User: What shape does this take?
Amino acid sequence: MSESAVGQDEPDFFVSYTKTDRAWAEWIAWELERDRYGVLIQAWDMVPGENWVNSIQDGVARAKRTIALLSPDYLSSTYGKAEWQVAWRDDPVGDQRKLIVLRVAECERPGLLGSIVSADLFDLNEAQTRSELRRVINQAVTGRAKPTDQPPFPGPGRLRAIEVQPRFPGALPPIWNVPARNPNFTGRDSDLDRLRAALTSHPMPTLCTLHGMPGVGKTQTAIEYIHRHKNDYDLVWWINAEKAEEAIGIDDQFIELGSEIGLDVVKTPRVGVEVVIRLIHRALRDRNRWLLVFDNAESSRDIEDHLPPAGSGQVLITTRRDGFRVLGDVLDLDVLEREDSIMMLRRCAPSLTRSDAVAISERLGDLPLALAQAAAYLDKTQLPASEYLALLQTRAADLHSRGQADRHPNKIATIWSASLNELRASVPEAVQLLTLCSWLAPEPVPRDLFNKHATLLPAPLNATANDPIAFADAVGALADYSLARCTVNDILVHRLVQDVIRQDDGNITGPSPLDCVLTLLRADLPAEINDKPSNWPRWRQLLRHVLAATTHQNELDSTAVAETAWLLDRAGNYLYVHGRPADAVGLLERSVYLRERIPGTGNSEMATTLNYLGLGLADLGQRHSAIEVLKRALHLLETADQPDDLAIAEVLNHLGWAHVLLGRLAAALPIYKRALTIHETADRPDWGKVAANLNGLGRALADLGQPADALPLHERALQLVEADDLWVGTTLAYQGRALMDLGRPAEALALLERAFIIRETAYGSDHPWLATVLNHRGRALTDLGRPAEALALHERALAIHEAAYGRDHPDVVADLDHMARALSGMGRHDEAIALRRRMVKKDG
Assistant: This one.
């Protein structure tokens, strides 16, 4: 036994714990023995040679009190349960306080433990934990909760006495001026938990700032937090710190607090406000359980003199501005989670369906003020949600000025007005930058989009973008006013800020902001996409911005029509390459429409767009339309003043492919051969396109039943592109197909597995071109007598094709055929017949 416990018939405490919490047990035992209590603890008192079960039983029986250290592990411990139950059995009513429950980690207090008054030692610093431990032990030993310090004198000149007797649950603190609770407050549980932790896990006084953009719900979150935890306070004082002509100043509101707490000194010509503030600070220092709130503070300098320098209370600040981290913790408040947005809308506008609420939440970017305003307007007007959403596309500015969110004086149309006016006067280039971002997608915009093309920007932003420090200042100004979120690399503007900004020209002279954005994107994005994976990351980064900017573009009502057409056909090409042919075709058809109406559009530009469009139509199964589009592109190139032979060869290659897909193999052969002749006689041939011709010609020959003639073409293609992984993967797929047609499945499988790895690495796991290789591998496996493995590959290919093309695409029919073949190889003939019937229905 420990020295303190040796020779004692009744040690003061037995510490019951599980091995996970040994550190807590030893720390507590040390503190108790330092206060001259006798302690029995397994870690110190169960020495080698003893029967520890008997020793524990003896310790529990002899100790005056048992301290149970609760944690998730303790609650699952059989021995821990036995130890605390002995103490509870001896004192079930709790008159002798034989069982003391201390939580050392977040956990439940199940069953009988829930009836024992407990204390929490976790989430405190060491000094606070030591103080809390002594408080609990003292009260358990003495049976009283008398404070160790004398209560302050309640007379004049001191803080007015705040009732110390327990308040009825739900009653407000004696000193209180907090706004009423919002009955429609929704969500924010995790944010409220974060705020709770920030305000209670540090030495007093604790200060925390809620920071976020206007309309995100900072004030309402603060109000909800205070109402939920009002029983923790005896004084809560709310100060409106916003600078406004009609607002009462911070000083006056602080002096009002002094009067409320009973100070007999008020501001006079001889007694300045500084004196009153010091007196209030001194009075608060003598009390605990208080909370000061500074709502909508504009600057830390405006309130720092009012912050108590010491004491045992808390301070909560809400602000849209940066610069408050110097005072303490800052919690950034984001928009609502989508489910909370839906709940909020349907609570305020009960007629909304869930699908309508989802669509409105998406369009309004989950901003609480916008959601409340929309719900109020819909509930008042009973406008169908579909009409409201349509109006948001065409008349967003009008809708943002209608409806009134409960408990909020502003509307979306005006909530950013003050910030914008201040910025226009102080940092006009920041507003220009914001305006340009507002014509892009509500997604991160790379900063270097502006830095790399400063000469294309309007003044004074052009000079700012050329100066790293000046540009950082401009970006920082947007962040400071919560008009944008900024990281080291990106700028992010909320979609509703964009809506409001687009109604204003942002002081940009010369070209419209939209035309400027379109020109920027055209200058930044690489033109080559098909066989250039090094260019894909920038397109991936800017694709959403291209789609947004070209959507805003009002057909021919712009000086940047040529840029728009170029962006549409390159974006369409990118989407085609990445397995989204339906999306690609829509963009390419728009590009064709624009090019047909742009004066001076050259044949080569139109042919480029038609070439991409033909590929997309062919992949979608619209092969006849694809052939007509590609013939038109070919005609434009052939009749140009200076025909581009290599461009002609590329269109010919695609035209041959469309014929192959239609089964017109005899028509495809001369087209491929003509393209191959052009490439082979060129001064500087593009070997990747030569390989594409060879592979296409080989595919046509194989389909004609001549795989032996096809194989050398694929082998030659592989030699030409052996340094280019993308072309290697494509060529291996063709070569493997030819080998299967030659009855050499084992050789084919090895090549196809390599092709699969290359394509999956380049295009991802759900690309239609990957499905093609999956089917080839499956065919090889079936031929090798492994149909079960083959079936899994064909099923995966079917899922990819149906997702990309729909259920009636020719490739889906082919997938079913491959699956039926594998099922037959497994002896599952009835299932194979059923699949073939499904194929007949699709073909019919």
User: Anything to note?
Assistant: DSSP finds 38 helices and 14 strands in the chain. The chain has a mean pLDDT of 85.
